[in-house]
Design a protein that fits this description.
By secondary structure, the chain is α/β, with parallel strands linked by helices. The chain has helices at about 25-30, 55-65, 75-90, 145-155, 175-190, 210-225, 245-250, 260-270, 290, 305-320, 345-365, and strands at about 100-105, 110-120, 125-135, 160-165, 195-205, 230-235, 295-300, 325-330. The model is unreliable at about 1-45 (pLDDT under 50).
Length: about 375
């Protein structure tokens, strides 16, 4: 694991690695590959000899390049969702045992929100809670795609993870998902006893756009007078819709997540560009006053288009007096914590360990 703030740019794309693969392409080309032994760092990953990826990540990308599926922005939302499900299923991974229940709770702009409560198996008693908001560009992802990761967080944090099944885009537009996330968080704080969790010990976490929602919920909790949050964890978060950072240009045609894909996700979530400047859409636009007093943060980035906006948000939180731990994984691609195909990499294991340690300390101290 390396901690650095600088990432180099890819000079040319690997062949269409923005693609999430079709079921046919996956069946034809994707065996279990992350077990490949860590050897010498491959040359010119992401098209730039100055960018080095973990061998497991490079192998993952090489296999996707063979499939050469359609870019995300050329798929329908339904097809893109199935592609991610197929990709995750193509990499069978061991999952930690968990006790899982689901519940529909009142609140939010749609009147109710579905939550999935994931507890370490066999652990009785009232646990603290981690609200988890999943990534996938507001369009993709669900309890299945994030199941392995959520179980890891529950075990590592010694907490119940409350996975919020917010309404995806384009079916729902900004700010519906944020309002559902906040409503679920508020409900757990007030009614946690109904699901055997301690609502007074509460943290928030999320990956990619889920990191965006994590930031939004902390801002909303401050503005609306609660609930009190002990910790926020943001994995490679979306924090701004400006598309102007150096990393956005450097990695525009880079590995996995591209500039075109990112803009497509935003068009599904917030087609009205006027709302994108709101702090709960682009947290990086929040003022120092709005950020002051937010819960301590762990913010993790990697080598992708979102790198700079994530680092800048960490810097802005710190300038507002928020305790921040910022770590960059320069040898990994976007989604590296969530993707089952990268679960065995050293970076993914280290990032999850860091996140769960931060959550455990905040919730149990």
């Amino acid at each position: 694991m390396s901690a650095t703030r600088r990432s180099r740019s890819p000079r040319r794309p690997l062949s269409r690695l923005t693609a999430l693969l079709s079921a046919a392409a996956l069946a034809a080309t994707v065996p279990a590959l992350v077990t490949r032994a860590d050897a010498a760092v491959p040359k010119a990953p992401c098209g730039d000899p100055q960018v080095s990826l973990e061998p497991g990540a490079q192998a993952f990308l090489d296999k996707l390049a063979e499939a050469d599926g359609p870019p995300i922005q050329n798929q329908t939302p339904a097809a893109a969702r199935q592609s991610l499900l197929n990709l995750q299923a193509a990499y069978p991974v061991a999952k930690l045992p968990a006790d899982i229940t689901t519940r529909t709770i009142p609140g939010g702009p749609t009147g109710s929100v579905s939550i999935r409560i994931v507890r370490p198996h066999g652990v009785s008693g009232r646990l603290p809670a981690v609200m988890y908001f999943h990534g996938g560009g507001w369009v993709l992802g669900d309890a299945s795609t994030h199941d392995r990761l959520v179980r890891q967080i529950a075990h590592g944090a010694k907490a119940a993870v409350i996975f919020v099944n917010y309404t995806p885009s384009p079916e729902a537009k900004y700010p519906v998902a944020n309002e559902q996330a906040y409503a679920a968080t508020q409900w757990v704080a007030r009614h946690g006893g109904e699901i055997n969790v301690d609502g007074s010990r509460l943290a928030v976490a999320g990956d990619s756009v889920g990191g965006n929602m994590t930031a939004a919920v902390t801002l909303m909790a401050k503005q609306r007078g609660g609930p009190k949050l002990a910790q926020q964890v943001l994995f490679y978060p979306v924090t701004d819709a400006s598309f102007t950072t150096p990393s956005f240009r450097r990695f525009a045609n880079g590995c996995w997540l591209t500039a075109a894909g990112t803009k497509w996700f935003w068009s599904q979530y917030a087609p009205d560009s006027g709302v994108r400047t709101q702090p709960t859409a682009s947290p990086l636009r929040a003022t120092t006053t709005q950020l002051r007093g937010l819960p301590k943060a762990l913010l993790i980035t990697d080598s992708d288009v979102l790198h700079d906006e994530g680092r800048q948000y960490a810097d802005k939180l710190r300038a507002a007096g928020v305790p921040v731990t910022y770590v960059n994984y320069p040898h990994m691609i976007h989604d590296f914590v969530m993707l089952n195909g990268l679960a065995g990499t050293q970076a993914a294991k280290s990032a999850v360990t860091q996140a769960t340690a931060a959550l455990r300390q905040a919730l149990h101290s």
